[in-house]
Design goal:
Oligomer: single chain
Radius of gyration: 16 Å
Shape: globular
Distance between the termini: 47 Å
Largest sheet: 5 strands, antiparallel
Number of helices: 2
Structural class: alpha+beta
Order of helices and strands: HHEEEEEEEEE
Length: about 120
């Protein structure tokens, strides 16, 4: 019985950890510009040397206003370095990650998180 309760509790905690809203976990880096039942538009700023904790995003689009070199760590333990170029538009599949700015410039972007899928 105790094992079943413990497993259920751990499963709930893991699910919660993977669904962290970046606006709640890192309000210093995200500003909500628009939100409705279809999308949430976020302004994102991460100065050189700053690191944000693990959080999740639904599918969406990111437009890079000011490029930077980033280290991205995923929930499964993978890491990768990415260079985001000023003016670049990026499609982002749903993801759970932490981001660290390992460059010497501030990352500044607009992210559009989709809440629902439109008709095909």
């Amino acid at each position: 019985m105790k094992t079943t309760i413990l497993i259920s509790l751990l499963a709930a905690l893991c699910t919660t950890a993977h669904a962290q809203d970046p606006v709640k976990t890192s309000p210093q880096y995200y500003k909500v510009l628009l939100e409705n039942d279809q999308v949430r538009v976020l302004e994102y700023r991460l100065k050189a040397g700053q690191k944000e904790p693990m959080h999740s995003h639904p599918a969406g689009v990111v437009y890079v206003l000011s490029g930077a070199k980033l280290k991205v760590s995923y929930a499964d333990g993978r890491t990768e370095e990415k260079a985001a170029a000023t003016g670049e538009t990026i499609w982002r599949d749903p993801t759970t990650h932490a981001v660290e700015n390992i460059g010497d410039t501030e990352a500044h972007a607009i992210a559009i998180d989709f809440k629902t899928r439109g008709p095909h």
